[in-house]
Structure formats: C-alpha cells, structure tokens
Amino acid sequence: MKNKENTPSVRRCSVGGQAVMEGVMMKSDVGIAMAVRRADGSIVKHYTKYRSKAQKGTFWGLPVVRGMVAFVESLKTGMDTTTKSAELLGESFEEEPSKFEKWLADKLHVDIMDAVMGVGIVLGLALAVGLFMFLPQFVASLIFGKAAAGADRFYIWRSLLEGLLRLAIYVGYLFAVSGIKDIKRVFMYHGAEHKTIACYESGEDDLTPEKAMKFKRLHPRCGTNYLFLVMAISIIVLTIADIIMHSLGFPGAEMKRGVAFLIRFGVRILLLPLIAGVSYEVLRAAAKTDNWFTKAVRAPGMALQLITTKEPDLDMLEVAIYSFYLAMGQKNPLEERKLAEEAAKAAAAAVTIDAPADPERGGEEAAESEAAPEAPEAPEAGEAPAEENR
C-alpha cells in the first residue's frame, strides 16, 4: 500500500502560514487567523480581516510587482503577529517605550504601540541589511583589495564571493538559532503548519491531528524556500549590476575607495525590491509544477526546511488546524466535536449532582442537598475576555 505521505497533492489552497509563540498564524485571501495554546491548555483564537494590495487587474498585482508588495506586507504581518501572539498567551511587553518612540508617536499623531512597532520594523530591517548585505560586501571588498579603476580587475569574483558569503551567513544563522529552546518550539509549530496545509491539499476535509501527522513537514511554498531564492537570485542580479557598472566606467580613476563602496551598497539596496519580486515569481512557478527542473530549484530551500521545521506533537497540530479553518472561514469539525464532548460531560456531571439521595444515609445527605450552592464570584466591572477561548 502506498504511503499517504508520498501521495501528490490533488488540490491547492491559497492559505499560507507562519509559526508564532506557542501557536500558528494562517493567512488567506480575506483574513489573518491565529490560534495559540495557553499554559492552561486552552486554545485562544484571533481573526482579522485582511486583503492584500496585490490584486489582479491592478498595478500592484502585476508580476514581479506583486512579489515586492508581498515582501513588504509579510514583514509587517510578521511583526504584528509576533506581538499579537504574546498578547494571546497572556504575556505583555512591559518595557517602557523610549523617549524617541514617545516623541515619534506625538509628532506623527499615532498610537504609542504603533510607534514602537514602527521602530521595531526599522531596527529589524537595519539588522537584516547589515548582516546580509553590508557585511558580505565589506568582507569581499577587504579580500579583493582596493576597489579603484584599473585595480578592480576581479569585480566579478568579488560579486560571486559576496553572494556566497550571504548564503553562508543565512545558513549559519538558521543553524545558530535552531539550538535555542524557544525557537525550537516555534520550528515545531512551523512543521505543524506545513502538515496541516498538506493534509488539506491532499483532499482531506475533516482534518485531525492524527491525519495531519502522516504528512511531511516540508512544503514547496515555504518562506524558507523564498528567502533562499532571494539569496541565490541576488547573486545573479547583483553580479549583472556590477558588470553593467564596470562597463560604464565605475568606479572612476579618481574615486575614493569608501565612496565607491557606498555607491555599490546603495545600488544593492535599490535592487532589493526587484530581487524580492523576481524570487517570488520563481517560487510560484516552481510550486505549481513537479518536474525535474522545479524540483532542482526547490531542493536547496526544502533542505533548509529540515532546519526551520521540526516534527510537531498532536497538540501543536490541533492548534494549527484551529487556525487553518478560521482562516478559510469554514466550520472546524475538530472543534465542534470537542465542544460536543465537553457539553456531554457537563450534562453527565449535572445528572450525577441532581441524582436522588440514598435513603440509607438518612437525613444528613438530604440536609446537604437542600443547602443552597455557593454563588459564583461575580466578575469585576468591565472585565471581559478579548478573545474566543476553547
């Protein structure tokens, strides 16, 4: 009998996801859903309506352009969901906003948390640009010496080395963070996200943790694949850019080394949106078909998923299924069965409590049964759960 794990998908869905703190975010064409498991074992859910700007028939929906839009939107969504998952867990960031963040919120007339998020996104981008763009260029420039006209004979090798260093830093970064305990749990939820989507795409409508567990934790549309493609395609695009600049006489004979370095760095920053857009189109094309060429394109990213995903447990898969159905706007059979079981248990408990007293025990039990039950403590004014709890 053929293993279901190797069965090809029979349908595709537009849902993509992201692992968060003790949970999973799923994004569909119309909304963003999130499910998180709290310390008490309950699953709390959150849903926000969402529609990408990259719609068909618009400029933002054009090929390559839509990839640029998706890249920017994914950065913002990633920051938002990370913060929201902490809130759903019942945790909060108690760090006092800095004076700069308070000043920024006041000057821009925005909420203080929006200002904090904005500063966080800028700092995150600065770190990513510094680690994956500035550092490789700096090291490659040191190795190949003075970047001046006449002496810069190895500019193509410098560009290739720069790209290889970028890839090496990316892979090394993934290996480094995978050893952190909390990150490992996030990677397990990442695996739960992939298994859930794969289970649905196999044709299964009634998702359960046991069914989803049979599928692979690797998925061709994963963001890990996308980021690897960004790194790989950047080697091609930036090498071509260096060839064009060199053919135009850059850098000039009198240009200082530091100025030439900064100009090359600026060109790389300006080309990032184009690289992101092209990478997005390559990922889409490679995920649609399954021949030897697309498998070769996907292979490095799929291999990296062995780092960025880990085998989840059944509880994690349950959370991912909750998030998936919520994003799809469909009823969750798993949740409905669970609620029915809880209702049945509650009804059985009520019947047991209301059962007639044993006459052999005399009036003692009768007196106990006639005693008024202790009234439940009333909630404080204004206190209400912000999220639906299961």
Notes on the structure:
This protein is an alpha+beta fold. The chain has one domain (22-353). 60% of the residues lie in helices and 7% in strands. The chain has twelve helices and five strands. It has helices at residues 65-88, 99-108, 112-144, 155-178, 181-201, 209-212, 223-247, 257-288, 292-308, 314-328, 333-354, 363-370, and strands at 16-20, 23-27, 31-37, 43-49, 388-389. A five-stranded antiparallel β-sheet has the order 1-2-3-4-5, sandwiched between helices. Strand 2 and strand 3 form a beta hairpin. The longest helix is centred in the first third of the chain and has 33 residues, at 112-144. It is elongated and about 100 Å long.
Quick synopsis:
By secondary structure, the chain is an alpha+beta fold. 60% of the residues lie in helices and 7% in strands.
Essential attributes:
390 residues; alpha+beta; 5 strands; elongated; disordered C terminus
What is the number of helices? 12
Strands, count:
5
Strand content: 5-15%
Give, in order, the helices and strands. EEEEHHHHHHHHHHHHE
Proportion of helical residues: 55-70%
Shape: elongated
Q: Determine the N-to-C terminus distance.
A: 38 Å
Number of domains: 1
Query: What structural class results from the helix and strand content?
Result: alpha+beta
Average of the residue pLDDT scores: 82
Radius of gyration: 27 Å
Read across the widest sheet, the strand sequence of neighbours is 1-2-3-4-5
Tell me the major beta sheet. 5 strands, antiparallel
Low-confidence stretches: 1-9, 147-151, 363-390
